[in-house]
């Protein structure tokens, strides 16, 4: 077989042409021969495999970093919105107030905190009630002197529940749709379930832990601090990224009744 040779003057082959030529044609026993040996093919394949593995590792690492960054941005925003709504409703928690011509009276409606998270941190894997509170519009009795008619009081409940690393916040006037502590007592007298458009349900996933801390402000009022830690998991692996957020809700009255209950 005729072996091609590099052209002589005046053409000077470029470097890639030289490399390809010497990869294909090698000097063996004083003669130029073409082709590759098994050893050469094995070494080349090994080098190619190592390069591809390195590229794959780099690609996987960059993809994971991108996904983690995207998760962190979206999760932080969702967490802040969720906790903001929780704070707003906790700060609306109040008693059942009755307004009559002869005076004003109130029925105590406790704010309940599950002992599992009271002043401590725990996971959110089980189906539990974490917080329960009541928001009540007052009952106004008829007043002949002012020529006003009766206005029934309206009750709605707010519950924060946990299940499978997910927090769910619900507000509704329909007791059948709420998980409530057994110690809760619906206000007596002129109060009904609130059927107005106040219902909502929002959820927050990827929650690793929850803590609910009771705070006392300088003015004597009580506060509820809710802190969450979220984690990005892939399969059953430990969290690849963690994110923490918290809010502090100030209760309406200094003597607001806060009670704990068993899980």
- Separate helix tally: 2
Task: Show unreliable segments.
Answer: none
What oligomeric assembly is this protein in? single chain
Which descriptor suits the 3D outline? elongated
Structural class of the secondary structure composition?
alpha+beta
Rg, rounded, reads 35 Å
- What series of H and E elements makes up the topology? HEEHEEEEEEEEEEEEEE
- Cα separation of the termini: 88 Å
As a percent range, the share of strand residues is 35-45%
Give the helix level as a range of percent: 10-25%
| Mean pLDDT figure | 87
Count of DSSP strands:
16
Instruction: Give the biggest sheet.
Output: 7 strands, mixed
Task: Provide keyphrases for this structure.
single chain; 263 residues; alpha+beta; 7-stranded mixed beta sheet; 4-stranded antiparallel beta sheet; 2 helices; 37% strand
Report on the structure:
- There is one protein chain.
- This protein is an alpha+beta fold and 263 residues long.
- It has one domain (61-261).
- The chain is built from 2 helices and 16 strands.
- It has helices at 15-24, 38-90, and strands at residues 25-28, 31-34, 96-100, 103-107, 111-114, 121-122, 128-137, 139-140, 153-163, 166-172, 191-193, 200-204, 207-216, 222-232, 241-250, 258-261.
- Strands 5, 7, 9, 10, 11, 12 and 16 form a 7-stranded mixed sheet that branches.
- The protein starts with 14 loop residues before the first helix and ends with a strand.
